[in-house]
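Reproducibility note. Readers wishing to regenerate the assembly model reported in the main text can use the exact inputs given here. Chain order matters: entities are listed in the order in which they were concatenated for prediction.
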Amino acid sequence: MNDNQSTIGLQFMRLGMLALAAGMLFGVIGGFQFLFPEFLRELLFTKTRPLHVSLVVSWIFLGAIGGIYYYLANQCRLSLFSVRAATWHFWIFIVTGLAILTCYFAGKFGGREYFEYPAVLSIPIFLTWIMFGVNYFKTVFKSTEPWPVYYWMWGTGIVFFFITFTEAYLWLIPYFRDNMVREIMVQWKSYGALTGSWNMLVYGTAIFVASRISENPQAARSKMAYGLYFLGFFNLIFGWAHHTYLVPSAPWIRTLAYAVSMTELFVLGKILWDWRGTVTSYQKNRHCNAYRFLFASEVWVFVNLILALVISVPALNLITHGTHITVAHAMGTTIGINTMILLASVFYVIREELPLEVHSGCSKQVKLGYRIANLSLAVFFTSLVLAGLGKGLYGGGSFQEMMLSIRPFLLAFVVSGVTLMIGIWIVLLYAVRLINLCIDPANRAELAAEY
Amino acid sequence: MGDEARYGQQLFQEHNCIACHQFYGLGGYMGPDLTNVISNKGSAYARAFLMSGTQRMPNFNLDETELDAMVAYLEFVDTTGRYPAAEYRVNWIGTVVQNDE
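Running the prediction on these inputs yields the following structure tokens for the assembly.
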């Protein structure tokens, strides 16, 4: 096999892990600034927040894209339509990413929340996404068999990212920009659906890894798996609106969104739960790191499902909206679900790439980092929920007094953020070292000769 | 939206104010929601914060034209609705009808 076919996906994954490590550092700095506004005043919170968000979101995309490139070329018996396009995708991503980070450090903004960089930098993102989409569909169309559900999920995620990312820039048109309510509804509709599109990429990866670990390809072709796909797709289109219940929009939008939100995440939890019962102890041990992270994602699915259901009830949303509970919802899903699934994917790949003598599939270092990260995330998540309740139920007084009243919870949030970062860093240190072994041609040749 | 408010909107984005503030509860939580800051506190109050900053908020060194534009933008936002809801009723299925939006 062409060496680039097998390593381009790994390079995306490695870059993603570096982005996650850096993103968590900026998250911790931002957390300290939230509590102690004088902390590192040279790097304002207006800079650390987009640095944190952009780097962590990059990890989700890089981790998912890397897995897709790798799995198609190495596990699905489909050679990539164009390795060159994938390589261009990688380098354009790096150059654009560095330009965006430079803008943030320099305080050059101009975009909207979550895409704060000058809008012109979205052009290369659009272009690379087209390259990725063409490469993906040209590759999977080579398949002569009916598609497993993860092909559909990845394809849907790619198409809808393009649509929702385009929507996120409708504010450039005066028709949207000049009407506050219209603009804010379109903006949050696009963000919610964009999150749905990356969830398609990540949940597709979860089903791929789970079906491979259990050596049960039918798990990705079951009625339940397709049920999840259609439900996820439905949520992608409608399930965003709990963020905008309190924006003065048409009432039917809120009611429909409320109904749709109630179905969220349920089937994914069911599939993973069923999958766990089919895995033998041999398979768990062979892929114990990957199994561990998939198991964690399963637990976090249920925790986040409960919170998502609560904040989707409009009467409760009156209290939770505009509070740290929204942050708990975002952090709980991006760290607890997306990051755990993508780390499972990374460790599955490492186990497949390296001989047993180099990596047994288990390690004490990963176990330590995994435990620290998950315990910290539990405290982190709970602190945010309590801080949010404190804010939502606060009876009066000034903003400063409210912030003072929830300070103990914010302190717990910041301290657990530090330990969460340490836990994830311990895992990443181990994973990056092994991914380096998989990527480096000299090491690959040496390993191939030795084993 | 008038030209002055539109310029204020541009400045709001260029300084990434949404990293700390919210409109309709959407944005960052470092600072307060600004949807109705004008009707709740007045233009002079908003202008004073913009001019000198606070312990939590940096002074962005805005000139007079920029200050006017930012206040005009906040005045425009204030006319678009009420947040948080003050007058509302909750239906038995959990939906909310806001009377003051």
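We highlight two features of this model. The radius of gyration of chain A is 22 Å. Chain A touches chain B through 47 residues (CB under 8 Å).
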